[in-house]
Amino acid sequence: MYKMYEIVCKKRLAHKETLFEIYAPQIAAKSQPGQFLIVVPHERGERIPLTICGYDIKKGTVSFAFHEVGKTTKEMGLMEEGDCLLNVTGPLGNPSEIKKFGKVLCVGGSIMIAPLLLQVKAMKEAGNHVTTVLGCRSKEFLFMEDEARALSDKLYIASDDGSIGYKGLDFLKELLKIEKFDRCVALGPVVMMREVSEITRPYGIPTIVTLTPIMIDGMGMCGVCRVTVGGKMLFGCVDGPEFDGHKVDFDGLIQRQRMMLPEERLSSMLWEMHGECKCGRNKA
Amino acid sequence: MESVNVAETKPKPKIKKEAVEMPKQEPKVRVKNFNEVALGYTEEMALEEANRCLQCPKPQCVTGCPVEVPIPQFIKCIREKKYAEGIAIIKTKNALPAVCGRVCPQEEQCQAKCVVGKVGEPVSIGRLERFLADWEREHGFQMPEKAPPTGKKVAIIGAGPAGLTAAADLVKLGHEVTIYEALHVGGGVLMYGIPEFRLPKVIVRNEIEYIKKLGVDLRLGHLVGRTVTIPELMKSGTDAVFIGSGAGLPQFTGCPGENLGGIYSANEFLIRVNLMKAYAFPEYDTPIRIGKHVVVIGGGNVAMDCARSAMRLGADVCLVYRRSRDELPARKEEIENAEEEGLVCKFLAAPVEFYGDEKGWVKAMKCICMELGEPDKSGRRSVKPIPGSEFVMETDTVIIAIGQTPNPIIQRTTEGLVTDPRHGTIKVDENCKTSLDGVYAGGDVATGAATVISAMGMGKKAAKAIHEYLMNKK
Ligand SMILES: Cc1cc2nc3c(=O)[nH]c(=O)nc-3n(C[C@H](O)[C@H](O)[C@H](O)COP(=O)(O)OP(=O)(O)OC[C@H]3O[C@@H](n4cnc5c(N)ncnc54)[C@H](O)[C@@H]3O)c2cc1C
Ligand SMILES: Cc1cc2nc3c(=O)[nH]c(=O)nc-3n(C[C@H](O)[C@H](O)[C@H](O)COP(=O)(O)OP(=O)(O)OC[C@H]3O[C@@H](n4cnc5c(N)ncnc54)[C@H](O)[C@@H]3O)c2cc1C
Ligand code: SF4
Ligand code: SF4
Ligand code: FES
Q1: How far is the CA of B52 from the centre of ligand 4 (A)?
Q2: pTM of the model
Q3: Domain coordinates in residue numbering, chain A
Q4: Domain A103-257: CATH architecture, name and number where available
Q5: Cα separation of A230 and A46, whole Å?
Q6: At what angle do helices B332-340 and B301-312 cross, to 10 degrees?
Q7: CA angle B415-B416-B421, nearest 5°?
Q8: Is A275 within 8 Å of A283 (Cβ atoms)?
Q9: Which of the residues A119, B61, B76, B332 has an alpha carbon 20 to 30 A from that of A2?
Q10: Which of B227, B268, B409 sits opposite A26 (nearest CB)?
Q11: What pairs with residue A225 in β-bridges?
Q12: What angle, rounded to 10 degrees, do the helices at B43-50 and B125-139 form?
């Protein structure tokens, strides 16, 4: 029998990308593609939002993948199977709209490739023809390529430096000239989602992006996640996290994401200097 | 010798007009720390203050208390130094005396009605209540008796004062009680809203431990509406539900520039500072960025808590309120405390627009002057802007504390639950029953933002109604 919020399985996906499967039967029972969790690693920890990338109702587990970017995610990278997170809340946010659209283009970048594949799978099961694009910084950051190939009708790979697949997303512009899509789903870094939205805009392909503003509670209490969509102020956590990419004010989002940057850097730096991890495990 | 009727022969002892002062941290010291401001009575002080009570046979004070704490009875126990008995008397009506003794607006409730108040300062009922509750915490809690199990299951949504009170009463009556709380800690506003320096969190945690010891199952990180819904709970064997989910949805001004960095809702600011302990960053992981010149918009208790927290983080704080000083809705004591700590107020002004620097951080705010009009139906004076009176004030942090409404997640996921379309509150009858059979609601979610004690009062009332409902249900 697992303990609540126990890490049942830990998988290294790439350099700094890790997947956790954790025990939380109440969340597993309700999870749907597109939803996210709020994870609190320990007593003094932050609440951080992470997208669901898998669930197993029988086993009572739910999975998420995270990129080690700052204090909290780096610290979590050091946790092992058998360790417990203090709390995981979810599933939060609205589920993705999954139905038969026809031809769907799914574009995933960096760590968000993991949750994208959950959508690819669901879109496929709903009877769509799915073209998947995986984007990464360079070759060594790519993961889940085989899973993606198995799930999709067509697979393209792109990297920022061209070390694998196409260089950048310009090839998509060419692709759209010859192929027609009924829907596009983009999940990844904000600049990537903005680029994809601009590429699909001239063709009027409905493009759904997952916004990642800073969040605290994830249920509509604090308003830190406010984003501007179609000129209206909305809350990323309860009105989203998915929005119409053609209506999102991406610049405003980027600006708000950077709000606490100096503090985040300080926290990360201090932690690296002192090497103390509060879950009781010392930094490697 | 037989005693004669002493009261009639001896002249009545003169009642001291002044209440015994409660020691406080000095303003200059306290504005630099997050420790509790009011330090509590010593035993001598409590005895002296208890002696000011006239032990009225028809106590008016009790009529001012929303849960009718038997005030003269517990004060008598203090006089006789029977502290354990005193706290037991309070707890028959009030499950959270350490909290209420600190944060009840006593000057409008019990103490407003005290007869001693007609000749001098009223008896300090709240301070005495706090004294007994603190005494109990130091001497260990007594466990009350529990009725035999009834086999009935009740789900409580939200671990704020309303939910905790209903849970405590229902578990004592023998029902199986589970609380579903969305956050990773229980306590509601007591944990995430009211700051440490007014209500130390160790007190709230103690109260929650007590309720868990009574046998209540507290499930944290369960957002009802997402993790589980009310219809699902009812289908899987829950006999009754109490909704005590509070009023946690922040309001914004709608002025241009509100999404700039450095503009916080009161909730975000207080959640960061209190719940996530950003004042101890980087020891705790959640940061808060605060500048030198903080503007707090609003004038209620929430605005005061934001202002006083910001001062403790080292900022100069200016409160901008659209009415005048006389209309400030915050407790008088808190306004005085804040002013002693250095709060500056700008009355009769309202924000119009926020301006940012090149990095997207707020740097100034345009305001407009307001003038008071005639009182409206509710007795509050209306306000209107004075055309052409705009002025700009510099600021690097803005906290918006202009009110909260109930979070709609539960309402949206519970078919048939009737709500008030204007305020978003859940409609209940005089027994806290909602439009759905077996579903009750109370606290801020039913009344809109109110007080701790009124939320508890409704939790109690609902528990009674739920008990009757369950015992009549086949
Ligand atoms: C709805 C939602 C879903 C998300 N899903 C995932 C996911 O599946 N996997 C994953 O790795 N990350 C995801 N994120 C981002 C993740 O929450 C942040 O990476 C995490 O909070 C960083 O915490 P930290 O303490 O390690 O880093 P911090 O010290 O907080 O930040 C380090 C760096 O990350 C950036 N950052 C901080 N918060 C965010 C954020 N919310 N979004 C984007 N960048 C941020 C900062 O600007 C900074 O440069 C998601 C965010 C949201 C809002
Ligand atoms: C800053 C501030 C200062 C205040 N100061 C005072 C004061 O000095 N004196 C006073 O008397 N009153 C004060 N109040 C008001 C008082 O705190 C509230 O009236 C009281 O807490 C309401 O209690 P409640 O139980 O209804 O709701 P809350 O205390 O709001 O608790 C509701 C709980 O339900 C949880 N919840 C919400 N939705 C869900 C869901 N869908 N599923 C599961 N859980 C959910 C929330 O996380 C929360 O824990 C203050 C309020 C604030 C914000
Ligand atoms: S609960 Fe509040 S109102 Fe009632 S007696 Fe105590 S302090 Fe007064
Ligand atoms: S009204 Fe005042 S004096 Fe009379 S019993 Fe109550 S507290 Fe005592
Ligand atoms: S994260 Fe707090 S309201 Fe969205």
Answers
A1: 9
A2: 0.90
A3: 7-92+263-279, 103-257
A4: 3-Layer(aba) Sandwich (3.40)
A5: 31
A6: 20
A7: 100
A8: yes
A9: A119
A10: B227
A11: none
A12: 140
Mutate to test the pocket of ligand 1, among A36, A53, A73, A92 (most ligand atoms within 8 A of CB): A73
Cα(B62) to centroid of ligand 4, in Å?
A: 8
**In chain A, which residue's Cα lies nearest the Cα of B245?**
A221
Cβ distance of B287 and A91 shorter than 8 Å = no
Cβ A37 vs Cβ A92: under 8 Å: yes
What is residue B352's DSSP assignment?
E
The answer to whether A70 touches A117, Cβ cutoff 8 Å, is no
What does the pLDDT look like over B244-290, one tens digit per residue?
999 989 999 999 999 998 999 999 999 999 888 888 887 777 778 88
Residue B439 β-bridge partners: B241
Q: Is the pLDDT assigned to residue A281 strictly greater than 50? A: no
The 10s digit of each residue's pLDDT in A247-266 is 999 988 988 887 777 777 77
Dihedral sign of CA atoms B211, B214, B218, B224 in order:
negative
| B397/A contact by beta carbon, under 8 A | no
Reported as a single tens digit per residue, the pLDDT across B2-54 is: 444 444 444 555 677 888 898 898 888 898 888 899 899 999 999 999 999 99
From the CA atom positions of chain B, what is the Rg in Å? Answer: 24
Distance CA B323, CA A23 (A): 52
User: Which of B282, B341, B257 lies closest to B306, judged by CA?
Assistant: B341
Pocket test for ligand 5, best of A47, A224, A253 (most atoms within 8 A of CB): A224
